């Protein structure tokens, strides 16, 4: 796990190493063990690397690294878990005088033998890389299949900038850094910036499972090309679904995950795992402990607020599995103290509040280990989110109503003031009273008003339903959520389509961004066994009736875990990994939020409709409306904007 940065200036340059060093210094947290630089001023290419040594701690793993034949130079971030298998395949063609045992050297030898695409197709791992072909004078940028590792790139003037984090790109003198107001609307809708966009105009995220080939003579950047196509894998999975019995599916999943977990336990440094006590992380830890001769180190954090605390569940699972468990209970102040540093580590607006506990548990784990396995991905692969079950049931019922009736009902709900509804509910019997019924009914109105299932899904995952109204002069750009004809699978149950869309958007752009930035902020390598591409392809082939069986979501994953942990230990309501933002905004964060959302400030900056934001904040602050998620999105942009002005 590391970080890299670089630039390609077709006009060439005389001395680029000073700029390169500034770029690399900003991402030293991704690789505190060593730094490296490679510059060819005549060709116009410069590569920098910051190393977090995991495999082959010797200087033989130093980057940027040149291939044996001298043709390729590589700066790379990630781990190739099957690199020893690739070495054996390479050695079958003849002996190789390896310099060390790093996966970087394996990749380079693969590029020389199989070419860039052939090597990427063989690699099982998480990675982002920049590869310079000295023979063809071409630059290749590539990213892993599911988007575990980040890669930003874009032209600023005539210079191509690229790197693991935006802060590195900002150090180059060609940097322009214009905030893209249109993309700001996407952030308000999703609470993250969805790929391929970034918050800066002209800078993009390379899509997962894609590579970019850039020649010195190219007039403009080519389109990224897929080396693994998840849409094709989804179609293949439906065309040739898993045909075995349900128990056989659990057996197959266990075999796959045992191998995926075992591969990710390879390290020359201390290793452990995050353990929340939920099904996904508990399964990963159970399979780790099965393959370990000593207790696996596990880590969890707890909160004093019971509705946000899973630490006691994690402790029970850890005791049953026999892990070496560490837990830390954090106060609200511990979480609040993270807020000033969030914009620096996330580098572009990001408002998933679970970034705070993720950062805290990463820091806890880093106190003892350098690598930690995570259980992310299980919900998207095996039908775990409530939108796949409860959300689907709502749409199934609503779909029976004529559109005209639904539209009329939605209009009536929107015309009824939310505070009037809440006031009426106060007179109802206690058992019928619900908090913020008015807001909930307005959300129902949004759902009633959609035309088709795809619109329903988009409404479910949206924060602001009309973000362009909050950003004057902006127009919301297209995403996979708005281009079904191009990107959505043609067949399949609506729940399958929702899972697929989450794999294409929410997973890489929220969940994996959160994990990467939080772990890398403390120089911790995070690995995600459930996102091994073989497990993903298996999940895509598994019929929905196996994922959701007898009303039980994530059925095959649950059955697998029950082979290691008693069912009664796991049967409890699903919890999120969140923090009580709503209470904080009306309590310890109120003064900070008042300053961030001051009308004169908003008008001066010019990004938001100050009057609309003022009403939103007033309703939230007073408790009249439960709009804290909307407000938090805006606050996180404001905090990010502040951080840019002082960077």
Shape: globular
Task: Find the count of extended strands (DSSP E, 2+ residues).
Answer: 17
For the biggest sheet, the summary is:
6 strands, antiparallel
User: Which strand order does the major sheet show?
Assistant: 2-3-1-9-8-10
**Mean model confidence by pLDDT:** 90
Keywords:
single chain, six-stranded antiparallel β-sheet, alpha+beta, 647 residues, 17 strands
Notes on the protein architecture:
- This protein is of the alpha+beta class.
- 44% of the residues lie in helices and 14% in strands.
- The strands form three sheets. The protein has a six-stranded antiparallel β-sheet with strand order 2-3-1-9-8-10. Strands 4-5-6-7-11-12 form a six-stranded antiparallel β-sheet, covered by helices on one side.
- Helix 9 links the parallel strand 14 and strand 15 (324-330).
- The protein is globular, with a radius of gyration of 25 Å.
How is the secondary structure organized here?
Layout: E1 2-9, H1 17-25, E2 34-40, E3 45-51, E4 65-66, E5 72-80, H2 83-91, H3 103-122, E6 125-133, E7 138-143, E8 152-156, E9 159-163, H4 166-169, H5 181-190, E10 204-205, E11 210-215, E12 225-226, H6 230-239, H7 246-263, E13 271-274, H8 279-290, E14 297-303, H9 311-321, E15 324-330, H10 332-336, H11 342-346, H12 355-366, E16 371-373, H13 378-382, H14 390-398, H15 403-415, H16 418-425, H17 437-448, H18 453-461, H19 484-487, H20 494-504, H21 506-521, E17 525-527, H22 533-541, H23 544-547, H24 555-561, H25 567-570, H26 581-585, H27 590-596, H28 599-605, H29 610-622, H30 628-646
Parallel strand pairs: 13-14, 13-16, 14-15, 16-17
Antiparallel strand pairs: 1-3, 1-9, 2-3, 4-5, 5-6, 6-7, 7-11, 8-9, 8-10, 11-12
Helix pairs in contact: 2-3, 6-22, 7-24, 8-9, 8-24, 12-21, 15-17, 16-17, 20-21, 28-29, 29-30
């Amino acid at each position: 796990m590391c970080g890299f940065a670089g630039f390609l200036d077709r006009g060439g340059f005389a001395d680029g190493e000073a700029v390169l060093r500034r770029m690399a210094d900003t991402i030293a947290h991704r690789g505190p063990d060593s730094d490296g630089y490679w510059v060819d001023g005549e060709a116009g290419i410069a590569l920098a690397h910051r190393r977090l040594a995991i495999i082959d701690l010797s200087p033989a793993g130093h980057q940027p690294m040149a291939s044996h034949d001298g043709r390729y130079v590589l700066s790379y971030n990630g781990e190739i878990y099957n690199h020893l298998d690739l070495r054996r395949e390479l050695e079958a063609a003849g002996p190789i005088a390896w310099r060390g045992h790093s996966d970087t050297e394996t990749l380079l030898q693969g590029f020389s033998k199989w070419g860039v695409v052939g090597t990427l197709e063989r690699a099982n791992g998480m990675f982002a890389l920049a590869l310079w072909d000295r023979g063809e004078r071409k630059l290749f940028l590539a990213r892993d299949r599911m988007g575990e590792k980040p890669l930003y790139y874009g032209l600023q003037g005539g210079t191509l900038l690229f790197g693991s984090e935006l802060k590195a790109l900002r150090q180059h003198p060609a940097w322009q850094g214009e905030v893209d107001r249109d993309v700001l609307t996407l952030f308000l809708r999703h609470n993250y910036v969805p790929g391929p966009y970034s918050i800066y105009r002209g800078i993009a995220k390379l899509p997962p499972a894609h590579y970019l080939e850039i020649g010195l003579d190219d007039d403009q950047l080519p389109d990224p090309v897929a080396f693994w196509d998840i849409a094709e894998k989804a179609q293949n999975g439906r065309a040739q679904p898993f045909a075995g019995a349900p128990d056989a599916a659990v057996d197959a999943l266990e075999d796959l995950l045992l191998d995926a977990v075992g591969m990710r336990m390879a390290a020359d440094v201390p290793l452990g795992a995050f353990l929340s006590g939920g099904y996904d992380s508990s399964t990963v830890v159970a399979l780790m402990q099965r393959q370990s001769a000593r207790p696996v180190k596990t880590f969890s954090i707890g909160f004093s607020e019971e509705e946000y605390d899973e630490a006691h569940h994690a402790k029970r699972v850890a005791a049953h599995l026999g892990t070496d468990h560490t837990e830390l209970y954090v106060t609200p102040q511990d979480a609040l103290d993270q807020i000033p540093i969030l914009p620096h580590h996330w580098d572009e607006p990001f408002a998933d509040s679970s970034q705070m506990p993720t950062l805290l548990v990463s820091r806890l784990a880093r106190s003892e280990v350098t690598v930690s396995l995570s259980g992310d991905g299980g919900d998207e692969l095996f039908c775990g989110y409530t939108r796949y079950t409860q959300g689907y049931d709502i749409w199934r019922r609503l779909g029976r109503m004529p559109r005209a009736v639904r539209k009329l009902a939605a209009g009536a709900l929107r015309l009824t003031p939310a505070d009037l509804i809440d006031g009426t509910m106060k007179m109802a019997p206690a058992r019928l009273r619900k908090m913020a019924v008015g807001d909930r009914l307005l959300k129902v109105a949004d759902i009633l008003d959609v035309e088709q299932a795809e619109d329903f899904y988009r409404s479910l995952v949206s924060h602001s339903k009309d973000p362009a109204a909050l950003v004057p002069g902006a127009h919301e750009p297209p995403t996979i959520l708005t281009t079904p004809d191009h990107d959505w699978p043609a067949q399949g149950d609506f729940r399958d389509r929702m899972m697929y869309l989450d794999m294409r958007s929410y997973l890489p752009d929220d969940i994996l961004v959160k994990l990467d930035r939080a772990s890398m902020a403390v120089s911790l390598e995070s690995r995600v066994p459930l996102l091994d591409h073989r497990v993903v392809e298996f999940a895509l082939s598994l019929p929905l009736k196996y994922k959701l069986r007898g009303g039980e979501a994530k059925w095959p994953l649950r059955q697998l875990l029950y082979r290691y942990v008693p069912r009664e230990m796991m049967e409890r309501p699903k919890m999120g990994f969140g923090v009580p933002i709503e209470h904080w905004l009306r309590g310890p964060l109120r003064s900070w939020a008042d300053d961030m959302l001051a009308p004169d400030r908003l008008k001066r900056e010019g990004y938001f409709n100050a009057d609309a934001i003022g009403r939103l904040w007033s309703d939230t602050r007073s408790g009249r409306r439960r709009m804290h998620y909307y407000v938090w999105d805006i606050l996180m942009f404001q905090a990010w904007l502040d951080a840019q002005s002082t960077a």
